[in-house]
Amino acid sequence: MNEANHDAGGTGKQSNPKDLVGSKKVPLSTLPFRVLWRVALAMLEGMVKYGRHNYRAAGVRASVYFDAVMSRHLGPWWEGEDIDPDSGFSHIDKAIAGLMVLRDSMLQGNWVDDRPPRGIKPGDLTELNAEAARIIDKHTDKNPKHWTIQDDIQ
Known about the structure:
The chain is mainly α. The protein contains 6 helices and no strands. The model is unreliable at about 1-5 (pLDDT under 50).
């Protein structure tokens, strides 16, 4: 079989020569469109509140988007609140939208990097992961109950 007709998509059959070229491009087919549609609604809310692509024109501050994503969306979601009461959208969709805005501004080069001075030193996480493993290994004889939202202790 010549290279132009090889199985570029992993389907087990000969393919169009265009497949070889197309299979090496950014694969938008890997994106979950069900998620993207919902993130688009979260972005629509931002558009009607602040103006379409306002973040691209004006730039953003890292701290504002960090706080929005972590404090107003991921934190409440982690604590069991699935829906943002302000918008009615999933906190996860709102967090993704916030990260998309931040990342877009980073790529545009118009974000304000107001993160604190670097606090992570080389090896910090490696050492802490080793300590976590030591703690877990020390208590392998235990069998505690690990509570989840299914236990809902109101």
